[in-house]
Amino acid sequence: MLSMYNLSEITVSKAPLVTELNDLLKDKNTVALVDENVAKIYAGLFKDVWNKIILIRAGEGAKSLVYTEIVIQQLLELNIDRSSNLIAVGGGVTCDLTGFIASTIFRGINFSFIPTTLLAQVDAAIGGKNGVNFNGYKNVIGTLQHPDLIHININFLNTLSDIEFTSGMAEVIKHACIHSFGYFEFLKRNAAEIKEKNPEILLEMVRQSVEIKAQIVAKDPKEIGGRKILNYGHTYGHAIETHLNIPHGFAVSMGIIVANELAEKQTALSEKEQLEIKNLLRQFGLPTDLSSLEFNALKNKISKDKKRIQSKIDFILLEEIGSPKIKAIDLCDLP
Ligand code: NAD
Ligand code: ZN
């Protein structure tokens, strides 16, 4: 269990999946909601429990009210009751949907997460935010409820596509930038091993990232303000993601570069540190070249950001690696 985090019990491990997950899945009160791709790849894991598994459609489309109703219908057909426990096995989509259903059905039942993508392990599974999309708006309907258990096993990462793994690395690098120079150095030193998925190094990396996210959430469990620093790279990141239609982490990587350029003037982030961050992102195959960006269109999107207050918008800028600051920047001062 991680230090300082009593919102959920979190374990991070590299033990063989079958030995570790069998008991959890076999529990008589448990129904597992499993991403359909994960169910296919890891069919052996579920061989004795097929009768109490619900397959979740892969992709963002599963995070909808219509799909929520379909899954709830299946749960009721399995005769779940208030003593039942739901376990999500999948990426951020499966975790978000499972958490939303579990925290609303019968006014809330127990639930746990077994996140299987890097993004879900270091980010989406931790923090208690559950929700679905509505009419093109992301995560607008949801709950804030922490799962009882978050069980992270890095073996799942071996079958993840390169794009999904690389995308998740943007959040890992974000954690280092906003929290720890030591962790940043660790990522630099071990980049080759991480890319090769060396189990010891990967375990250490996921553990450190989880610890950072958990610590930030623990200080602000109800999302009142302290969590804002997790938004580093995300103001431009979100705008770039929808504008260029690229994976989340790729857009966040470019968003980090924009934030760092703003930070040069606003918080005196040195050119040397900007370059260090750019090089680390590049080492993991994340994009850092901003020449394809149409800044006018992005600015237009950002001006509609729900976090805007009059003509100013809060940015998370670094003073140095490991030391973030919240700065309200006037829209006129954006590139
Ligand atoms: P995802 O759940 O869609 O998974 C990505 C793809 O990987 C899917 O095709 C899935 O089938 C596949 N997959 C999952 N595990 C696999 C494995 N071990 N091996 C092979 N393939 C595997 O996407 P994601 O990136 O994990 O999560 C994105 C979602 O998370 C978004 O909806 C986002 O809004 C949400 N999110 C939520 C929070 C939060 O705080 N709740 C934070 C960040 C992101
Ligand atoms: Zn993100």
From TrEMBL:
Compartmental location: Cytoplasm
Every 3-dehydroquinate synthase N-terminal domain range: 54-166
Q: Which cofactor does it need?
A: Co(2+); NAD(+)
Q: Which pathway is this protein engaged in?
A: Metabolic intermediate biosynthesis; chorismate biosynthesis; chorismate from D-erythrose 4-phosphate and phosphoenolpyruvate: step 2/7
Q: Which SUPFAM superfamilies match?
A: Dehydroquinate synthase-like
Say which enzyme class the record assigns: lyase
Q: Which InterPro entries does the protein's record reference?
A: Dehydroquinate_synthase (IPR050071), DHQ_synth_AroB (IPR016037), DHQ_synth_fam (IPR030963), DHQS/DOIS_N (IPR030960), DHQS_C (IPR056179)
Question: What domain of life is recorded for the organism?
Answer: Bacteria
- Domain 3-dehydroquinate synthase C-terminal, which positions? 168-307
Q: Name one GO molecular function term.
A: metal ion binding
Give me the Gene Ontology terms describing cellular component: cytoplasm
Report if keyword Zinc is assigned. yes
Entry's Pfam families? DHQ_synthase, DHQS_C
Q: Which reaction does it catalyse?
A: 7-phospho-2-dehydro-3-deoxy-D-arabino-heptonate = 3-dehydroquinate + phosphate
- Please give the biological process terms from Gene Ontology that the record holds: amino acid biosynthetic process; aromatic amino acid family biosynthetic process; chorismate biosynthetic process
Keywords on record: Amino-acid biosynthesis, Aromatic amino acid biosynthesis, Cobalt, Cytoplasm, Lyase, Metal-binding, NAD, Nucleotide-binding, Zinc
Main location group: cytoplasm
Determine if DNA repair is one of this entry's keywords: no
The record's EC number reads 4.2.3.4
Task: Spell out the PANTHER family in the cross-references.
Answer: 3-DEHYDROQUINATE SYNTHASE (PTHR43622), 3-DEHYDROQUINATE SYNTHASE, CHLOROPLASTIC (PTHR43622:SF7)
The job of this chain, per UniProt, is described as: Catalyzes the conversion of 3-deoxy-D-arabino-heptulosonate 7-phosphate (DAHP) to dehydroquinate (DHQ).
What does the sequence similarity comment in the record state about its family? Belongs to the sugar phosphate cyclases superfamily. Dehydroquinate synthase family.
What is the name of the protein in this document?
3-dehydroquinate synthase
Q: Which organism is it from?
A: Luteibaculum oceani
Gene name, Swiss-Prot/TrEMBL: aroB
